[in-house]
User: What shape does this take?
Amino acid sequence: MKAAVIGLGRMGAEPSIRLQHIVPEGWLPISHTEAILNQKDLNLLAICDADEDKVTRFKNHYHIPIGYTDYKELLAKEKPEFLSIATRTSIRKDIIKAAVENGVRLIYAEKPLCNSVADCEEILALLKKHHVMMGYGVNRRYHYLYKKAKQLIHEGLIGDLKEIHVDHGYSNLLWTHPHAIDMLLFFAETHEFQYLQGKCNFSSPYTVQDTLIDDDPYVEHAYIKFSNGVQGVITNSGGTNIRLCGTTGNITIHGDGKMIECYSGTGYFYDRLVINEEPNSSATETVIAELLNAYHSNSIPPILPEEILAGHILSTGIVQSSLHNSSLLSPLDINKNMIVTGKLGNFYA
Assistant: This one.
């Protein structure tokens, strides 16, 4: 399949050598460009970025024949079948619309997909109408050890799952917490919730204007009660750990997927299990391979559209709850038109 990458920043094209010996196994290669080049079923013909220097640099680095600074020109001339989008959030909706118009069949887009629930619904409806399959850059759900942890739950190692705790530090809603929220959805295995509660801190009162939040607020904490009874908690603790608490034990994924530690049993005596296995491919490589396989076999994609939408609903709900003194909100309370720009200093998510 003909492939193209739009957006040549950190996730789009930066070489993984910068992260060697810094991140755990299973994360490299992490950029879209590197992962696509490692797929035998894809032919990366063209790349695009508004910064011409980046286009020249990565064309030479990866030996890619064609580069553009205008994504519309790329789509019209090259007609890629597989498109990777790693731009800033605000422009992704327009790129996806142009991609669909030019016959793209598969899209892998970075998170968050857009800046409001209403826009997310519009994008997903457009993709469904034109039978375009979507992959989404919440990479932990594609990482080997996170999948292994879910398998252990299915095997009954810790009984019935009751709580999910995500420790991703005191960090920003759009820059970081699409990952935290997706981990709650991934392990809870439902996109439906009863209510949520959130507490955020904003840069200044001037960034909050009715339904426009011109900020990327820091999340102090969030709580979600899912429809199946599982409770999800986002803390501001560091360590990048996921703790899965069941009726007969618990599983902790330590250090951003470095290892799994399990305790299972009843009473005072528990069995301990440690899993530290090297994956065969990175999370980015895995999601692209799974997306291609789902497309060719007409099977379920690595993430469902309902899960992508739920992530945006929960994200918006956390902010909205905070604006209402951390009140409990049901799904019907969420304002779909609330826009969170993701502004952090002089940059946007």
User: Anything to note?
Assistant: The chain is about 30% helix and 25% strand. The CA atoms of residues 293 and 299 lie 8 Å apart. The domain at 140-281+308-348 is CATH 3.30.360.10 (Dihydrodipicolinate Reductase; domain 2). The mean pLDDT is 96.
